[in-house]
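Supplementary Methods S3. Complex input for the nicotinamide-adenine-dinucleotide-bound model.
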Amino acid sequence: MMQIAVIGAGYVGLTTAACLAEIGHEVSCAESNVQKLELLKRGALPFFEPHLEELVQRNRQAGRLSFTSTPEAIARSHAIFICVGTPPLENGEADLTAIEGVARTIAQQATGYRLVIEKSTVPVQTGRQLQRHLRLYRRAEFTYDVASNPEFLREGSAVEDFFHPDRIVIGVESPNAANAMREIYEPILEQQFACPVHASCEDRSVPPLVITDINSAELVKHASNSFLAMKISFINLIADLCEAAGADITKVAEGIGLDRRIGASFLRPGIGFGGFCFPKDLQAFVRIGERLGLDFSLLREVEKINLRRVDQFVEKVRRELWVLRGKKIGIWGLAFKPDTDDIRFAPSLAIIQRLLAEGADVSAYDPQAMTKAKEELPEIRYCQNPYEAVEGAEALLLLTEWEEFGHADLERVRRLMDRPLLVDGRNMLAREKVIAHGFQYIGIGQSAEVGAVALA
Ligand SMILES: NC(=O)c1ccc[n+]([C@@H]2O[C@H](COP(=O)([O-])OP(=O)(O)OC[C@H]3O[C@@H](n4cnc5c(N)ncnc54)[C@H](O)[C@@H]3O)[C@@H](O)[C@H]2O)c1
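Predicted complex, serialized as structure tokens:
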């Protein structure tokens, strides 16, 4: 058992804190946002993430997890995980203000030895800056090691990803730091825990541990996200080609993905990637690559393709509805992906903003993200359920593939709409099924010609 501080109680920090407590560590989680901290101290969560609430409750009650201020968490702990945000600056570089702030607080508050662990996603060489900063601002009695431990969790399955990661990557430059990191993750590496997600979990596979230097660990994270973003933009480009040439992206993606060298994941076309990771990490990776003198135009293109998705999707809607002014449009899904309430950089918001700019009348429903969306987009109508969102609508746009939408009563939806037009931005619903219910269906990368042949 180790005394651990987690700084920043966001999607990554709170998950990390609760899961580390669950595997037996004593965790002090610090949050600088006073409202969030108060909420956490009262036992409530500032965001939605499956299974996290019960984990937080259980470990608070067991006395292994507490919420406090940053200086107090630092004072109590041997290891400090930095999990603060690294949002994009205007020029796309990562804004490291919060990281710098935490480093300075650690240097000024800590006494004795501390292991300082970067978990936030940061550009390569941030660890070096961190070491320098800790040295410059430290008090005499403070010694430290720095480690990088990039986080790969996916919102919506964050708890599961902590317990069953594909790999654990650790960047260290001293045996002390390596040993301490191994000790922290020992229950995961030795599969000695009761899985909090599946009561009868039989997955006992041991995740590979990748130990490397700090720069390389930092690079693993940016390179992984950029590669996945590249896969998404690639399949979106091929989807456009399917529409232009008369082919079906679903089949093309299936055919590509069955090649084991490629794999089927991230080959789903749609309205583009969003969220707090891919868009900003891709941009930051391009900027650091160029700053170090490399030509990163490959990844610039990935970004460009993604930005075009929103315009192309709105154009599809415009082609059908002709004039958008005054048209009632129903939206299913606001979160950047299902099973989260996160709307940061969600393509749905960009699409709605375009529709509003052209005078459309928008009603939306999302199972989890409406509270957050209301702050960003107060001018649309928020509905209690998917059916209310389509009343009198001339088009239904499916923008997030929540499981709930797959079970919707399409007969009822059609009857409620003024015009049964369904534009599926995620290719979630089966085209033939939707058409059989009397809808006009427009998906991504599915040429109408091919559909007609398949149906004939
Ligand atoms: N969200 C994800 O899916 C995900 C996955 C992997 C990695 N990451 C990376 O992890 C980092 C955090 O992401 P997130 O989604 O959790 O962000 P977030 O915005 O949800 O959480 C960051 C939290 O840190 C708090 N904070 C900022 N400065 C602080 C300080 N000095 N002391 C205490 N708290 C402070 C903020 O108030 C906020 O609550 C980012 O670098 C992100 O790129 C995110």
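Confidence is low (pLDDT under 50) at residues 452-456. The chain has two domains: 3-212, 257-451.
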